[in-house]
Amino acid sequence: MSFAHDEPIETGALPALPGPSLAGVEDYLALLKPRVMSLVVLSALVGMVAAPEGLHPVLGAISLLCIAIGAGASGALNMWWDADIDAVMARTATRPVPAGRVQPGEALAFGMTLSVGSVLTLGLVANWLAAGLLAFTIFFYVVVYTMWLKRWTPQNIVIGGLAGAMPPMVGWAAMANAVSLESALLVAIIFMWTPPHFWALCLIKSDDYARAGVPMLTVVAGPDETRRQILLYALALAPLGVAPAFIGLGGWAYLAISTAGGLAFVAHAVAVYRRREGEPARKAAGRLFGFSLIYLFALLTALLFEKLAGLPAVSWA
Amino acid sequence: MTEPEDGGVVLTPEQKRQRNRRNVALALALGSLVVIFWLVTVFKLGGAVLNRPL
User: Which molecular function GO terms apply here (chain A) (predicted)?
Assistant: First the structure.
């Protein structure tokens, strides 16, 4: 018996080590999905401002930074896991990992470091309830949505949308060390807003998702069923968007903006439902996608300004 | 990227420039963390920092 290798080791079979990193600072910033982060910051800020006073403003600002970094970290982990499908979709092919500017391992290490760092720092700065909710949000987005739902079911963004909807609750918890009906309602609004928002984009980019093998509703059930679902979600979202004015959260400005915005949202969804062929259908979907962004930003900023200006909530007594 | 005779790696000027930019960003991030934890300490202590026997 010999312990020596009889055959020389085939070093040529080992995978080549990656060369020196070509990643620029802007590539690492792109991993954080800054546009998604801006919505997270705004919605978390609304949750914080609407919450009862409980944290020094400086600690509140640092908590908001932690929530933003946590959201960015989950974006980096999403790009690490999804690099294969990002590479075949025109919309995402230029992202740092599929484009080869950032190695997958670098994105993983970056995302994990920021995830752990943001959760622990939020726990130390604010409280462990908020930190736990942030950890749950990152876990839900990366593991439940990215690794599991996205490639498995056309309901991927419906269920996965919970991760994107959580920031107001995390922000509220950071300030008040509690969760509340008000913060749950804000989560519900963003949760119901996500499907029509993304499906409008899918109607335009359906070929992209089909090529990548992602079972989006447009690919699995077809554009007509997607249009029907968009309309149903819009009809549910419009009254839900107004609801904060009925539970002592929103004031008259919010009531007016959410009512007008909700009606316009439904009108855009009806246009998408009715225009099913050619360029008019494409334009209708594009307009709904654009308006959905304006709608959510309008609702959140209305609440933000009302709270900052000290305007009272609508009283129905 | 070129490989010298000793097997080491020589970075191109572009790779050196990117590395320097990453180093500066990392230094700024670490410096920011120091400031953040200093601020957290100060604001967590608040007025209680003066509450001690003289």
Answer: protoheme IX farnesyltransferase activity
Q: CB neighbours of B40 closer than 8 A, spacing ≥ 6?
A: A59, A62, A124, A125
As for how many domains chain B has, the answer is: 1
Average pLDDT, chain A: 92
Per the domain annotation, does B13 fall within a domain? Answer: no
Q: Do A25 and B22 touch (CB under 8 A)?
A: yes
**pLDDT tens, position by position, A163-202:** 999 999 999 999 999 999 999 999 999 999 999 999 999 9
Domain boundary among A135, A163, A179: A179
Mutation target to probe the B interface, by most B beta carbons within 10 A, among A11, A17, A21, A127 is A21
Query: How near does any CA of chain B get to the CA of A267, in Å?
Result: 46
Helix (H), strand (E) at residue B19: helix B13-45
Same domain, A94 and A136: yes
Contact A28 B25 (CB under 8 A): yes
Q: Does B25 touch chain A (CB under 8 A)?
A: yes
